[in-house]
Description:
By secondary structure, this protein is of the alpha+beta class. 33% of the residues lie in helices and 25% in strands. The chain is built from seven helices and nine strands, in the order E-H-H-E-H-E-E-H-H-E-H-E-E-E-H-E. Strands 8-7-2-3-4-5-9 form a seven-stranded antiparallel β-sheet, with helices on one face. A two-stranded parallel ribbon has the order 1-6. Helix 2 packs across helix 4 (113-123) and helix 6 (150-159) packs antiparallel against helix 7 (203-216). It is globular. Mean pLDDT is 75; it is low at 1-24, 27-33 and 226-235.
Amino acid sequence: MAFRFGSDIHRSWVLPLLVVALAIMFPGQLGSQTQDEWEWAQEAYVSTVNALLPMEYGGRYYVLYRATYSSTAATLENHERYFVLELQWSDDVKGGNAYFVTAHVLVPQGKSILGQIVSMHRKDAKLTAQDIQSKIRIKSFDYTEKNCPATGKAFRAFQNLKYGPPTTDLDSFAVVFDPPLYQFRVEALEGSSNIVMYDSTHPLVVWAKQTERELASCSAEHSKQNVRPGSDAFQ
């Protein structure tokens, strides 16, 4: 289990590191206001991620997964991860309902969402967070079991997962500063649940990472690809 240190605790030494990271990302462009600009970008990042990678979905039965990174890790171009596996059914089948699984995947293009925010803000400081949000480059992929069998496989694997609450065994803790934040939302017959994990070895996270790889392996030419409305970035 990885223990996440709160950002307020180490803020005094993290921000200087972020300034160094920015210097690497944007050599020759840094001014005296770098720290203020970075704090602005951090705030914009939270609202943008929640708007573009929401933790709620419109379906009734689904598993949603989102992985985001601390500001320190995101500057290293680690992309955010997001997918939804949804159980749906069709009434047009003889003899009763036919159940099938679909997948909705969102993938930041080029840089991570935070990287895009910082880049656009440095090019034009007059842009508001809302302006930048509308320009974030994200591509969406929609799969069914027909064009991506991994969707059904992953959903069934989730149904068979055995996992409990995060461990409270202090002897098993590994101290990791600012690990990725793994979030899950599950809507099922019995109710709904929201789960937040920091441990990359937890069965839920291992399943999500495996699902990521399998969905990514589905050929783009056999899937429906969409550009997020309002973005002109995918030409």
